[in-house]
């Protein structure tokens, strides 16, 4: 290559490298913005996960819940690799819902142990393989997701971003009269 070709070639290569890096950074920033907009739009509708409100819970789940809980219980599916699940676990540790709570925690034992360590001792933790079997039986596909169960029936369900979502579900569940099948959806009547 002649000196003139080198003078033209080197700046051209530098310009193309800068353009490539700039394009990759723009794509990265667009990905971040898209994820943030998804969070602002809110979680998926609770109807997308879990047994339908008014459905009986499977016998395996009934056996899991203590028979002396007529006020009901909350079943919470968490994932060992879920960021919002960690937030909810930490909030549960600091606050008492006043209701029996069972956490289904599928996943690798080491990762599940990290989340379980964040939960208070009052919360019953069910791990794999039983956790996966029960979450499949309850048809829960989102995490963190809570089902309100009373007298063997699903009386409410909600995606859970914070403990307050579970608290609203628990408060509304206290008002449910199973005989009339007055059921809650996401903590609202």
Describe the model.
The structure is a single chain. The chain is α/β, with parallel strands linked by helices. The chain has two domains: 1-42; 46-180, Glutaredoxin (3-Layer(aba) Sandwich), CATH 3.40.30. The chain contains six helices and five strands, in the order ααβαβαβαββα. The protein has helices at 3-41, 59-64, 83-94, 109-118, 130-137, 163-173; strands at 73-77, 101-105, 124-127, 145-150, 153-159. Strands 3-2-1-4-5 form a five-stranded mixed beta sheet, sandwiched between helices. Strand 4 and strand 5 (153-159) form a beta hairpin. It is elongated and about 85 Å long. Residues 180-189 have low confidence and may be disordered.
- The percentage helix is 40-55%
Number of domains: 2
- What is the CATH C level class of the largest domain, in words? Alpha Beta
Q: What average pLDDT do the residues reach?
A: 80
- How would you describe the shape? elongated
CATH topology of the largest domain: Glutaredoxin
Give the CATH architecture of the largest domain.
Answer: 3-Layer(aba) Sandwich
- Helix/sheet category: alpha/beta
Number of helices: 6
CATH superfamily of the largest domain: Glutaredoxin
Distance between the termini: 78 Å
Strand order of the largest sheet: 3-2-1-4-5
* Main sheet summary: 5 strands, mixed
Instruction: Note the beta-strand portion.
Output: 5-15%
Radius of gyration from CA coordinates: 24 Å
Poorly predicted runs: 180-189
